[in-house]
């Protein structure tokens, strides 16, 4: 692994914001960067606190954990913490640090100095404690780059058969009660377009499924009116505009991911959707995380660069214990590389 990044080919550089220093971000980063399965040309540049990374490395080593990337050999943009933090105990200081590291990492991307951004998990409540009132990294990134829209898409490759599962969330970090108010035909249309474009990276005529909002997709208006009132007409119109896409929906949400689950475990069939649009956060992320917790990657689409992140959070309950699995972080690093390969 070459260092430092000055003069390095920007196309080989993946910037990593190391997340909340009280969480598992540094641990999964050091574990993932030691993987021999990473592209050999990938040059990581970490944005965070060198001393904390060295401490994490020493603690993991003392627990007999290997392989690990040694921070001494890593390219680190050092933005030190004022004092060290106890793993598992997020504070305003940890929130301020992860917010700063994300901001500085994004600046590197905006200056065109890197290929993609990977972010380790942050805690939204720690950001709030530090006075940064954002629902998540996605929304902060959207603001930093001045994008009109940023979309949260989870993508995972089945370890059994290489099949790719994609779920895009129409709404993200908002209270459940706000979902029906925020969902509009325009929003669903825009998100479908993003999902279609993403799926077409892999197939010219992908199939897409859309989950309904209400139980049984409204049961013909008996269990909710949104489907009949605007979702079905909007989807029918979208279908006529995109005849190359097989669009199904709104489907009953409780079975919408069933055929994807079968495909994930090794039995893809002609009806399996290449992409699924979930109308709200937990509708899409419960099936994604149940099926693919160690493989799924959270991507932000709509920025001038690609951002990926593991699907898990800061896992404060296991921080400092050495048992955090780095598979999703590794998948996020690989996705940052592979999804930015010129086609
Ligand atoms: N990418 C991100 O920045 C991101 C993603 C999800 C949640 N979060 C934030 O993280 C914080 C904690 O969220 P949460 O508790 O809902 O979810 P979480 O993913 O942090 O933890 C849920 C459960 O999964 C376990 N777990 C998580 N990652 C693991 C790993 N790599 N290896 C082994 N076990 C793992 C945890 O120990 C916990 O039991 C919240 O503040 C949330 O907003 C951030
Ligand atoms: N919604 C994500 C999840 O549950 O995995 C997570 O909170 C991360 O969101 P940001 O990437 O916006 O921080």
TrEMBL record:
GO terms for cellular component: cytoplasm. It is an enzyme of class 1 (oxidoreductase). Its main location: cytoplasm. Binds 1 divalent metal cation per subunit. Coiled coil: none annotated. Its EC number is 1.1.1.262. It catalyses: 4-(phosphooxy)-L-threonine + NAD(+) = 3-amino-2-oxopropyl phosphate + CO2 + NADH. Keywords: Cytoplasm, Metal-binding, NAD, NADP, Oxidoreductase, Pyridoxine biosynthesis. The keyword NADP applies. The keyword Transport does not apply. One of its GO terms (biological process) is pyridoxine biosynthetic process. A divalent metal cation binds at residues 173, 216, 281. InterPro entries: PdxA, PdxA_fam. Substrate binds at residues 138, 289, 298, 307. Pathway: Cofactor biosynthesis; pyridoxine 5'-phosphate biosynthesis; pyridoxine 5'-phosphate from D-erythrose 4-phosphate: step 4/5. GO terms for molecular function: 4-hydroxythreonine-4-phosphate dehydrogenase activity; metal ion binding; NAD binding. SUPFAM superfamilies: Isocitrate/Isopropylmalate dehydrogenase-like. Its cofactor is a divalent metal cation. It is found in: Cytoplasm. The active site is located at the dimer interface. NCBIfam families: pdxA, PRK02746.1. Catalyzes the NAD(P)-dependent oxidation of 4-(phosphooxy)-L-threonine (HTP) into 2-amino-3-oxo-4-(phosphooxy)butyric acid which spontaneously decarboxylates to form 3-amino-2-oxopropyl phosphate (AHAP). Homodimer. Belongs to the PdxA family. PdxA2 subfamily. This is 4-hydroxythreonine-4-phosphate dehydrogenase.
């Amino acid at each position: 692994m070459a260092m430092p990044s000055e003069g390095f080919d920007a196309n080989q550089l993946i910037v990593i914001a190391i997340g909340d220093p009280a969480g598992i971000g540094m641990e999964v980063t050091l574990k993932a960067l030691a993987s021999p399965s990473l592209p050999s040309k990938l040059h990581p540049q970490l944005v965070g606190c060198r001393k904390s990374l060295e401490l994490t490395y020493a603690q993991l080593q003392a627990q007999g954990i290997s392989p690990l990337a040694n921070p001494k050999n890593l390219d680190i943009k050092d933005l030190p913490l004022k004092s060290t933090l106890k793993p598992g105990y997020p504070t305003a200081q940890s929130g301020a640090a992860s917010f700063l590291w994300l901001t500085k990492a994004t600046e590197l991307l905006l200056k065109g100095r890197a290929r993609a951004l990977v972010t380790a998990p942050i805690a939204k409540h720690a950001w709030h404690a530090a006075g940064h009132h954002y629902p998540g990294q996605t929304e902060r990134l959207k603001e930093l780059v001045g994008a009109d829209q940023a979309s949260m898409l989870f993508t995972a490759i089945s370890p059994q058969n290489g099949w790719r599962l994609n779920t895009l969330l129409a709404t993200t970090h908002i209270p459940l009660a706000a979902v029906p108010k925020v969902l509009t035909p325009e929003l669903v249309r825009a998100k479908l377009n993003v999902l279609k474009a993403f799926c077409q990276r892999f197939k010219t005529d992908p199939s897409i499924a859309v989950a309904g909002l209400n139980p049984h997709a409204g049961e013909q208006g008996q269990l909710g009116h949104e489907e009949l009132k605007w979702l079905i007409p909007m989807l029918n119109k979208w279908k006529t505009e995109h005849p190359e896409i097989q669009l199904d929906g709104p489907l009953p949400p409780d079975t919408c991911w069933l055929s994807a689950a079968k495909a994930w475990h090794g039995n893809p069939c002609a009806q399996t959707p290449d992409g699924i649009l979930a109308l709200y956060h937990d509708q899409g992320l419960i099936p994604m995380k149940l099926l693919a917790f160690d493989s799924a990657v959270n991507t932000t689409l709509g920025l001038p660069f690609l951002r990926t992140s593991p699907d898990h959070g800061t896992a404060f309950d296991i921080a400092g214990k050495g048992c955090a699995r780095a598979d999703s972080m590794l998948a996020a690093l690989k996705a940052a590389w592979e999804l930015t390969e010129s086609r």
